[in-house]
Write a structure and sequence with these properties.
single chain, about 190 residues, alpha/beta, five-stranded parallel beta sheet, two-stranded antiparallel sheet, 6 helices, 7 strands, about 20% strand, globular
Length: about 190
Amino acid sequence: MKLLHIDSSALGAHSVTRELSAAVAARWQDEVPGLTIDYRDLDADPIPHLTGRSLAKADPAEAEESERILQQFLAADVIVLGAPMYNFGIPSTLKAWVDRVAVAGKTFRYTEKGPQGLATGKRAIVASGRGGFHTDAPSDFQEAYLRHVLAFIGVTNVEFVRAEGVAYSPQHRADALAAAHASIPLPLRRAA
């Protein structure tokens, strides 16, 4: 089994989502024998934003990296995304990654009945950090976007590990992190 771990926070050691995504990956590592983990830090190693030149594959190195990112995603059984809320959405670095894995003909296609996701059978766990409180609020473009784009490419088994209100006070942050850690889903063990 393969797990793809993606972090996108710009806050380094102060990041709530990095702490939570690492905890999710560690739990899977402990619980799933033979699990392999691929890791990418989108802050330390950002992906270029999609441009016309990217689509035209004008830069062979960029085109090769895009294909590698896509293949890494396709090979994963589980995707762990560290996704902080920045200005009510996701970091642009994470959006650049999404643009490399949402590829017509590879992870989705259009049919006479509408779009069809092709990256089925995967599980996604999103470690979400939010300075304020946004669950079920009109200000939440982060979770709604991630649920929608993942489902669009075929990933419908999506769970969120969420820490909200972390900017309110140190106590809010501690309480939110404790609750989020307690909500980390366990891997489902396969029958022997």
